[in-house]
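Predict structure. Input: UTP--glucose-1-phosphate uridylyltransferase, 307 residues.
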Amino acid sequence: MASMITKAVIPVAGLGTRFLPATKAMPKEMLPVVDKPAIQYVVEEAVAAGLSDVLMVTGRNKTALENHFDRVGELEDILRNKGDLEKLEKVKYATDLADVHYVRQGDPKGLGHAVLRAKMHVGREPFAVLLGDDIIDERDPLLTRMLDVQLSRNTTVVALLEVDPSVAHLYGIATVEATDEDDVVRITGLVEKPSAGTAPSNLAIIGRYVLRPEIFDILETTAPGKGGEIQLTDALQSLATGPAWSGGVHGVVFRGRRYDTGDRLDYLKAIVQLASDRDDLGPDFRPWLQQFAATLASNEHEHSDAP
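Output follows.
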């Protein structure tokens, strides 16, 4: 295994207001991406990287998450009696995927506060944080690489992605220095959602972190920042500019496939991209998609020629 780290923290307390009314009674993390809820992709990623101990930081109306990773004896019996062993295996797979624990966030005070709620479970050891809005393609093992970097450098590690400067104000942005590895940089500064046109770079933080336990000490004294919330980015900034014994902060620049399920348009794109690549769906879905795209192009051409 790449690292001795075994614990993953997944904050899932958000209300998902961008997907209302679909998320009025269902957690946004349970929205299906093809035929699995978004949260299952994230847990599968953690497990594939060796993180079998998963803590979800939840909020109100999140019981569907717990139910998804729990046994459903009645459903299993129905599928078994029908002889539908393929669906039975999929249902049991989610149940046996990881050792999943839950803690309530309580007051919604931001991502930094959600991470702080994991302190008692994590203890004084490094751990990973995975945000559910970002699905990383299983063919591009970002988290495994981050664990390697954490182990070799004994540092805190964040995932970075090059974004168009026009959207840099939507992310936490890093100022960096090169290292002796092409995909690893040392972070010298971080700013959460800088004003448009003021971002120090186009390297954006995406939702994967491998944190040393010192982050808890910093979060306990971090004042509310952007949006009146306790920002994890602010605590990471303190680590990046802190004493050498804290290990500093490094970034892994990710150049693989990432699917953003954080808003409606990107969520739809994620479904199309993942379905297109599926061995069981892609061969039938891709030709239909090409025909549909051609129909759209034809309609647009007709409209542009209209008087």
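DSSP finds eleven helices and 13 strands in the chain.
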